[in-house]
Design brief:
Double Stranded RNA Binding Domain, 3 domains, DNA polymerase, domain 1, single chain, 16 helices
């Protein structure tokens, strides 16, 4: 029976921290001021805690009643946490991994800086996790996780590492909602670290690139595909731009007469407007798309008013069975070609990539070398063709 150390006034005035009412009942106040009730207990030598609701939705008297019921269970050798989980499952059933992961994505969407991050979560938790999406989340075991991760672990280590973390997050969310208990089968430290080989350290700052000598044959294959994403990828390669810059392109940025695409500062990594000279082939792509224009975006998505998904061009590579290559890596291929096969000055090549030149050179350079960059990108287009 609770000793009643708290009063209604004390609860109302409680500051950040934990305030005990006695016999395991606690009022927990966050730094922001929100208040919740918790019952803390020890069972089989393990200290656990179960939430009893937030204040003022749950009053002090109601919290004491809930704590008394939880105390009755744990004194009888039953975990109140497990009892709550069982009752929830009996009432609503166990959701699938797919349902839990989709809910997690929806709840975390506001944390992410851009649509690309969300698209990566969606793609990995839907495509790679297809074998377990229909499985009840409380039945997911280590073997299920290994079945998904093992094929990727050495071949695509960065993807595999991120995928493991996302599976772990989804299973943690299921546990927090009362649908799972025990250890997380996707946890790395002390678990999968004993079952999967240690990955080589990832090299940061470099994206897997196709050797520039292979780009012309790849472009030839790419032009055989009529999909909008394939046209977007070719346009991205020919303009040496980034994925987000290409897919976010709007018709208002395009000057077909002047053969220039001006990307506003707010869409550039360096927060500086960037003019892109358009080669003949890039203009052909734009003129083709202009005939069927449906909105503001040059490469519109299926949803009205939105651009193509950030994963659309990566998916083209996968469908063409191009492995070990990223869309961003074509910028590296362009730079290698420009440095090895042409005599264009370094600063022109860097300007074509919208790289900021630092030091004294950057301080004194005011123009963007548009005419010189036009010749460079024309030469790149001819090479690709």
């Amino acid at each position: 029976m609770a000793s009643g150390k708290l009063t209604a006034k004390k609860v109302e005035a409680a500051k950040a921290g934990r305030h005990g009412d006695g016999a395991g009942l606690w009022l927990v106040v966050s730094p922001a001021g929100s208040k919740r009730w918790a019952y803390r207990f020890t069972l089989a030598g393990k200290v656990s805690e179960i939430g009893l609701g937030s204040f003022p939705v749950v009053s002090l008297a109601e919290a004491r009643d809930k704590a008394a019921e939880a105390r009755r269970l744990h004194k009888g050798g039953v975990s109140p946490v497990e009892a709550k989980r069982a009752a929830k499952i009996e009432a609503h059933g166990v959701p699938t991994f797919g349902e839990i992961s989709d809910d997690l994505i929806a709840s975390k969407a506001s944390e992410w800086r851009n649509e690309k991050h969300k698209a990566q979560w969606v793609m990995t938790l839907r495509e790679y996790c297809a074998p377990i999406r229909s499985k009840p989340v409380d039945e997911i075991e280590t073997a299920d996780v290994l079945e998904i991760l093992t094929p990727l672990w050495q071949r695509a280590p960065e993807t595999a590492s991120r995928l493991r973390g996302r599976i772990e997050a989804a299973l943690d969310a299921a546990k927090a909602k009362g649908y799972r208990s025990g250890e997380n089968p996707a946890a790395w430290r002390g678990h999968l670290s004993h079952l999967l080989p240690k990955r080589q350290k990832l090299t940061r700052g470099h994206h897997a690139a196709m050797p520039y000598a292979e780009v012309p044959s790849f472009i030839a294959r790419l032009r055989e595909r009529e999909a909008l994403a394939a046209m977007a990828l070719e346009f991205c390669i020919l303009t040496a731009t980034r994925t987000g810059e290409t897919l976010g392109a709007r018709w208002s940025e395009i000057d077909l007469t002047g053969k220039v695409w001006e990307i506003p500062a707010h869409r550039m990594k360096a927060a500086k407007a960037h003019r892109v000279p358009l080669c003949v082939r890039a203009l052909e792509i734009l003129e083709t798309l202009a005939k069927g224009r449906t909105g503001d975006f040059v490469f519109p998505g299926k949803s009205s008013g939105k651009a193509l998904s950030n994963m659309s061009m990566e998916m083209v590579l996968r469908r063409m069975k191009i492995e070990g290559v990223t869309v961003h890596g074509f910028r590296s291929a362009f730079r290698d070609w420009a440095g090895n096969e042409t005599h264009f000055p370094r600063e022109v090549c860097e300007a074509a990539l919208a790289h900021v030149v630092g030091g004294v050179e950057g301080a004194y350079r005011r123009g963007d070398a548009l005419d010189k960059r036009r010749k460079l990108l024309d030469a790149w287009s001819q090479y690709c063709a």
